[in-house]
Amino acid sequence: MGLELMKRVLVITGATGSGKTTVSSYLAKKYGMPQVITHTTRAPRPGEIDNVDYHFETDASMAKLHLLERVDYDHHQYGSSYEALDQAWGKNPLISIVLDTKGAQTYHEQLGAQAVIIFLTVSHPQALVSRLTERGDQTKPLKQRISSAEYQRDLRLPPSLTKTAHLIVNDDWQQTQGELDRLVASIQAETRSV
Ligand SMILES: Nc1ncnc2c1ncn2[C@@H]1O[C@H](COP(=O)(O)OP(=O)(O)OP(=O)(O)O)[C@@H](O)[C@H]1O
Ligand SMILES: Nc1nc2c(ncn2[C@@H]2O[C@H](COP(=O)(O)O)[C@@H](O)[C@H]2O)c(=O)[nH]1
């Protein structure tokens, strides 16, 4: 029997601006890890493309989906489908998905060890606001988002994930890349079966 990798989904979670999308793109580029595209009813931001960044939905189309989990975040719905997971796993055994902390908890409950949780944080939450401003987020939606209960909640790792999540303090991008490389190497070693 040849070398075979077991399926894992790297669940990247943390507050808005903590670097989840940046990490997911790095894993896609460096390791060829497909990114699971999730669904949302929020409007696309400038530059976002339907079926690339998200599957953009209406309330009616969202209700018809076969979702593993669904959340409300800042007055919009978000959800990830079984089909999108299977589609990504069809391309590669290691894949990534970007979720809020509530979604990460559901993945942990539903998929157990198959879901590798990565919680991103920064030493100073003010850095998140600066990063989002530099990213080009508009002032009004940004203010609304950082006043949301979900933003405050996602600044901290949920107690149910403290034993399993890999915590990365994303203050310095070079250092974060090093931590991601070590984590991927350990997952590859652990999941390789003869
Ligand atoms: N270590 C870092 N140092 C400085 N800037 C960073 C770092 N990591 C990411 N960034 C930048 O911070 C901004 C926010 O990152 P990103 O979009 O990946 O966050 P996010 O967690 O996906 O946010 P959201 O949940 O709002 O989509 C981006 O402009 C990104 O380039
Ligand atoms: N639980 C889920 N969370 C999701 C999903 N797709 C995205 N997200 C998270 O929502 C917030 C807001 O995203 P944004 O693109 O509007 O900034 C962020 O934390 C995302 O990680 C999902 O399917 N389920």
Key words describing this protein structure:
194 residues, Rossmann fold, 10 strands, binds adenosine-5'-triphosphate, four-stranded mixed β-sheet, Guanylate Kinase phosphate binding domain, binds the ligand Nc1nc2c(ncn2[C@@H]2O[C@H](COP(=O)(O)O)[C@@H](O)[C@H]2O)c(=O)[nH]1, alpha/beta, transferase, four-stranded parallel β-sheet, globular, EC 2.7.4.8
Please provide a written account of the structure.
This protein is an alpha/beta fold. The protein folds into 2 domains: 1-34 and 93-194, Rossmann fold, CATH 3.40.50.300; 37-90, Guanylate Kinase phosphate binding domain (2-Layer Sandwich). The protein is built from 8 helices and 10 strands. Strands 7-2-8-9 form a 4-stranded parallel β-sheet, with helices on both faces. A 4-stranded mixed β-sheet has the order 4-3-6-5. Strands 1-10 form a two-stranded antiparallel ribbon. A hairpin with a 2-residue loop joins strand 5 and strand 6 (76-81). It starts with a strand and ends with a strand. The structure holds adenosine-5'-triphosphate and ligand LQESDW3C. Residues 14, 16-22, 131, 134-135, 170, 172-173, 176 line the site of adenosine-5'-triphosphate. Adenosine-5'-triphosphate binds at residues 14, 16-22, 131, 134-135, 170, 172-173, 176.
Q: Spans of 5+ residues with little confidence (pLDDT < 50)?
A: none
CATH class assignment of the largest domain: Alpha Beta
Radius of gyration: 16 Å
Total individual domains = 2
Terminal CA distance reads 6 Å
Q: Number of helix segments?
A: 8
The shape, in one word, is globular
CATH architecture of the largest domain: 3-Layer(aba) Sandwich
| Small molecules (ligands, ions, cofactors) in the structure | adenosine-5'-triphosphate, the ligand Nc1nc2c(ncn2[C@@H]2O[C@H](COP(=O)(O)O)[C@@H](O)[C@H]2O)c(=O)[nH]1
Helix content: 40-55%
Could you state the CATH homologous superfamily of the largest domain?
P-loop containing nucleotide triphosphate hydrolases
Element order: H for helix, E for strand: EEHEEHEEHEHEHHHEHE
Query: Per DSSP, what share of the residues sits in E-state strands of 2 or more residues?
Result: 15-25%
Catalytic activity: GMP + ATP = GDP + ADP
GO molecular function: GMP kinase activity
Enzyme class: transferase
Family: Belongs to the guanylate kinase family.
